[in-house]
Amino acid sequence: MVNNKKFLSGNEAIAHAAFRAGCKVAAAYPGTPSTEILENVSKFKSHIYCEWSVNEKVAMEVVIGASFAGVRTLTAMKHVGLNVAADPLMTFSYLGANGGMVIISADDPGMHSSQNEQDNRFFARFAKVPLLEPADSQEAYDMTVEAFAISEEYKTPIIVRMTTRTSHASGIVDLGDFTPMPPNGLTYVKDIEKTVPVPVFARKMRVKVEERTEALRQFAEKSPLNRIERGSNDIGIITSGVTYEYVKEVFPEASVLKLGFTNPLPKDLIKNFAQSVTKLYIIEELDPFLDEQIRAMGIVVQDYATQLNMGELNPLRMEQLRVEILGGTAPVIVSKGVGDGLPARPPVLCAGCGHRSVFRALSNLGVTVTGDIGCYSLGAFKPLESMDTIVCMGASVGNAFGFEKAGYNNKVAAVLGDSTFFHSGITGLLNIVYNKGISTVIVVDNRTTAMTGHQDNPGTGRTLMGEPTKQISVEQVAKGVGVDRVRVIDCYDVAEVEKVLKEELETAEPSLIVAKRPCVLGARIAVTRQFVIDLDACKGCRKCLKLGCPALEIGEADPEKPKLRKVKVNPVLCAGCGMCNQICEYGAVKENVLQEAGR
Amino acid sequence: MKKTINIALVGVGGQGTLLASEVISRAAMLAGSDVKKSEVHGMAQRGGSVVSQVRIGEKVYSPLIPEGETHFLVSFELLESLRYADTVAPEGVALINRQNIIPVTVSSGQQQWVDDIEDRISRAYSNHRIINGLDIARELGNIRTVNMIMTGALSKSLEIPAEAWQQAISELVPAKHREVNDKAFAAGRDLQ
Fold this sequence. Notes:
Chain A is of the alpha/beta class. In chain A, strand 20 (552-557) and strand 21 (565-569) form a beta hairpin. Chain A is 34% helix and 20% strand. The radius of gyration of chain A is 27 Å and the shape is globular. In chain A, the strands form six sheets. In chain A, strands 3-2-4-5-7-6-12 form a seven-stranded mixed β-sheet, with helices on both faces. Chain A has a five-stranded parallel β-sheet with strand order 14-15-16-18-17, with helices on both faces. A four-stranded mixed β-sheet of chain A has the order 9-11-10-13, sandwiched between helices. Chain B has 192 residues and is α/β, with parallel strands linked by helices. Chain B is built from eight helices and six strands. Chain B has helices spanning 17-30, 78-83, 104-107, 117-124, 133-140, 146-155, 162-172, 175-189; strands spanning 5-12, 34-39, 49-57, 70-75, 88-97, 127-131. In chain B, helix 1 packs parallel to helix 6, helix 5 crosses helix 6 (146-155) and helix 6 (146-155) packs across helix 8. The model of chain B has no long low-confidence stretch (mean pLDDT 93). At the A-B interface, strand 8, helix 11, helix 14 and strand 20 of A face helix 1, strand 2, helix 2, helix 3 and helix 4 of B. Strand 8 (169-174) of chain A pairs antiparallel with strand 2 of chain B, so a sheet runs across the interface.
C-alpha cells in the first residue's frame, strides 16, 4: 500500500476521519480547542456540507436532523459548548441515531483558553451515550472513523472526547485507505414511536436506552479500543486519553489497561486486569471519572496523595506520582535564577483594536460592566480595567438586567461581541424589552469571531462553505426584538463613543449601541497612516498610555530630567487608528500618511 | 535519532513560532523519525507569550517535554528566552533572536523592563548563541522571516538531511513566499 502518512494535529485528524467515514453534514460553533476541526472539515467541502452554526445548540440540532435523514454527521465544540448543546443531546440519546452521529467534545484541562475545566466525560454518562477517548492524533483518526460505525450499529449518538493536548498536539497519522466509505443506505422512515418522545413513547425509549447501554458494555469488553499492554505484574495502571502518553513515558515497566472506550465501562475486562496485578492504580486527568466507577465495582484501588484532579497533567506531575508510589527521588529542577522580576507578557487588545475606545469610555464613566466571552474580555485588565464580570457566552445581557432589577446603585452596561450576540445575546435582549428593563447593551461589532481565529458568523456575509450570504445587522435584530433606541457608533471616534455611551446610560429605556470597526487582525486592512510623537510637544503626561495600546511605549529617559519619560510609537505595531492622537491634550501625536500602504 | 530530542520554540504571538515548529516537525517526519508537537492556540496569540514544543525520536509518547529536559530552546525574542530558562536541561542549547518586544505591562508603566537580559542569558545558558535574526531578515527584505532564520540555525544541530528541510518548507510555505523563506532558512543554516 502507498505510504499515506501525514503529520496532523488531533483536530486535523478528526476532519480527515470525517471524510474517510463518509460524513455528509458537519456543524459547529468555534471554540478553543475545537475550532480547527470544522475549519479542516471545510477542506473536504466537496464531499461534506459544513457550517458555522449560530451556536452549539443549533449545531447539535442540525446534525440531529441530518442523522434523522440517514446520513453520517458530526458536530464539534469546546467543553462549555456542550453545556449549550446539552438539551438536544439528552433527549436525542433516547431517540437514537439513524445516520451515524459523532459529537466531538474538546475539553481544556488547565484552562488555557477557557473559563472552567469541566470534565465532559460525565456528559456521556449523563446522556447515556458511548464515549471514546483518543490519546493522540492517530487514535483521533481511527477512533472517529470507528465512532461513526458504533453510532450506526448501536443507533446512538457518540461522544469523542478530546483535550487541548490531543486537539492541539500533532503526530504522525497513517490514513490508510483514504477514500470515503460507501453510504450507509439509510433513509428517513416515518415512525413517531422512535422520533416523538411524548411520555408514552419516551418511556419505551428509556427502556431501550438501558438495553443499548448493556449491549455497548458487551462491545466494550471485546473492543480493541480497550487494550492491555502487559508489563510487570507488580503494578497495574488504568488510564485513558492523553494521560496514557504520560503514563507510558514515566511508568515504562507497568502493566497498563488503556481504555479508549470509557462509557459504558468494560467491567469484566477491568476486573480481570485488576486481578492480574498486585497493586492497581488509576491515573486520569481532571475528575475521578474512572476511579469512582471502578471503586464502585468493589475493586481494590490504591490510594495516593499526589493531587491530579486539578489542572492539566504533564510528565513532571506523573514523575511526582511515581516517586510517591515507587520511591526514588523526584526530578530536581534547578532554577537558573534568571527569571526574577521579568515583566509579564499577557495577551492584549491589538494595536488598532476598536474595542479600546469603548472600554476607555466605560472606564471614564465609572460604569459597572457585565462582560462576555471574546477578545474583549481583555478589557478587564490594566490599564483599561473596565469589565466586572464574565460568566458564559451571552451572559452579559441577562447579567446587566439582573443588576438593574437588584436595585444596584451604579450604572451598568453589558458588553459583548457580534458573534456572541448572535450566539446567545439576542434572547437576553428580548428579555430586557419584555420585562420592562432599561439596560444598556453594547455590541462591539468587529464583523468576525476574532478570538478563535476569525471565523465567519451571521454578520460576516460569508459561510464556512466559502459562499456569500445575507449579512445580518445587529441593529436590525435589536429593533426586531423591540429595542427602540439603537445607536451605531464608530469606535475610532473616541469622543463620540464616550458621548453616546453617556447618553444611552442615562436614558430610561432599553438601548443597544453597536460600536463598529472591523477586527484589524482579521480584516488585514492595509495601514495607510501611522502616528508619531512630536517630542517637543509631548509633556510626558502618559495619558495616552492609559489606552493600553501595545504600539505606545515609554521612551528613553531625558538625561537632564531623568523622571521625564516621553512616549514613542512603535512603527511595527501602529495600525493608525488615531485614538492616541484624539486624546492627547498637547497635540503631540502627529499623523503620518504612508506613501505605501503597509501590512 | 535514538534518544528523544526535545525542542521548545518560544516567542511572542505573531512571530511565526507555530510555522517554525511545524516545519521542524515535518522535516523530522520526512527524515523517518517519530515526532510529536504541542502548542496552545487561542487567546495567548494576542501579543502574549507563546511556546510550542517539538519532540523527535524513535518512539515519542508524551506531547509535552518533561520539565527541565529541553535540549534546544529556540527563542524568537530576548526576554522570552529567560522566561523559559528553567525548563532547559543544564547542557541544553539556547538559540536566541536578538530582538526586544516590549510587553504592554512595561510600555504602560506597570512593570519595569530588565536591563541585564544578555547578562542573564550568559548566566542561564553555558551553551547559547544570540543571532541577529531581525537584521538578517531586514537584509532579506522581509522581517517576517525571522522564524525561518532561526529554524535554519537550529537545523544544523539536528540529524535531518537538507532535502527533508527543503521539502518541509515547500509543503508549508505558500508559493509566493517560498523564495524569501528558502533564503532565510539558508541564511540561518549558514551562520558560522
